[in-house]
Amino acid sequence: MIHQRYFISACLLGQKVRYDGKDCLVSQLVQALLDKNYVSLCPEVSAGLPTPRPAAEIRHGSGADVLLGHAQVFSSDGHQISEVFIQGAYKALALAQANHVTHAVLKANSPSCGSDGIYDGSFTGQKIVGEGITAALFRQHGIHVVTEQQFLAELTQTKLTDEPN
Ligand code: SF4
Question: The whole model's pTM is what?
C-alpha cells in the first residue's frame, strides 16, 4: 500500500495567512492529522503576497484556464495578478513533490486552493463549479485533492465502516 502523505492549506491549520489577515482553523482537521505525515504552505504568501491583501477572484474560467493563460486572476482593486498566483501554485507543487505528497486538503472556495467551487470573478459572492490554480496544478500532477469538509466526511465514513456491527 502506498503511504499517504498530505499537503494542507496553511490557513486550515491556524496560520493567519488569509487575504483578510485571519486564519480558517479547523480544529477537527488538526486532530485528524496528528497521526499523519503532512506538509503545509500558503501558496499565495509563499509567492510574496502580503497579509492582509485585497481579495482575489478568477475571471472567465477556472484554475486550469489560468494555467493555460485563458483566464485571469483579478484583485478586488482591479489589478490582474495571475502571475503571482501561478508562482504560488508552483511553489506549493515543489514542496508537495519534494515530500512525495499523495493527497491534499485545500481550503474550499479560494482562487488558489478551492477544489469544488470558486467565486465567479464578480466579487458579489456568487460561486461557480471550478477549482483554484493550486488545486488544478496538483490534480494535473496526480495529487488527490479534497476540501477540508470532504476530508472530514471521508474520515467519518471510514470510521463508521471500520466499526464492528
Ligand atoms: Fe489559505 Fe490557500 Fe488562501 Fe493561503 S492561498 S490563505 S492556504 S486558502
Answer: 0.95
